[in-house]
Amino acid sequence: MVDFDALNAIIAPEAEAMGLALVRVAFFGGDSDPTLQVMAERPDTRQLTIDDCADLSRRISDRLDALEEAGEDPIDGAYRLEVSSPGIDRPLTRRADFADWAGHEAKIALKEKRDGRQRFNGELVGIDPRGDVVMILDKEGVQHHLPFDAIDTAKLVLTDKLIAATVPLSTEGADDMEEEGQD
């Protein structure tokens, strides 16, 4: 069992020291391929560069190694560390995500059924000012009010509108790239 509050308390300061915002800390893969996944982003671009990922990975590894040496390892056993950007069809994990990505298509799964449903797909309307209720407009035009704390998972759906709203970090040098096999 992994204590995510403890892991967040260890990892968030490392991300913040680099000027990054922590998006998600997850542990998956079971016994066969245990993986600690850390997603972070630059607040201004909502993305990470490869160098950002490498630097954050080293910071987290150094911190976790120091805790292990002190006998305070928060994770039992061996695991793989994966640090990445949340990507274009990103998970929505923080209250601000639901406001920031309003107007885009999303999929939301609840921990338990609500009004006979557990899954909701549609246009993200946003989150109420207190941050307690997420609103999503389904394909039938019905707006659903879902308590933030009842949400199990949520993510954006890859659409042309989302692609247009996501600015690449840099396209410098893209015109100079050659495809493999071309002279």
Automatic annotation (TrEMBL):
As for subcellular location, the record says: Cytoplasm
Q: Where mainly found?
A: cytoplasm
Q: Which UniProt keywords apply?
A: Cytoplasm, Ribosome biogenesis
- Which BP terms does GO give this entry? ribosomal small subunit assembly; translation
Identify the Pfam families for this entry. DUF150_C, RimP_N
Q: Which residues form the Ribosome maturation factor RimP N-terminal domain?
A: 10-89
What are the boundaries of the signal sequence? none
In terms of Gene3D superfamilies, this protein maps to: Ribosome maturation factor RimP, C-terminal domain, RimP-like superfamily, N-terminal
Identify the GO cellular component terms for this protein: cytosol
Q: Where is the Ribosome maturation factor RimP C-terminal domain?
A: 92-159
Q: In which domain of life is the source organism classified?
A: Bacteria
Cited PANTHER family: RIBOSOME MATURATION FACTOR RIMP
Purpose: Required for maturation of 30S ribosomal subunits.
Task: Name the protein family.
Answer: Belongs to the RimP family.
Record-given protein name:
Ribosome maturation factor RimP
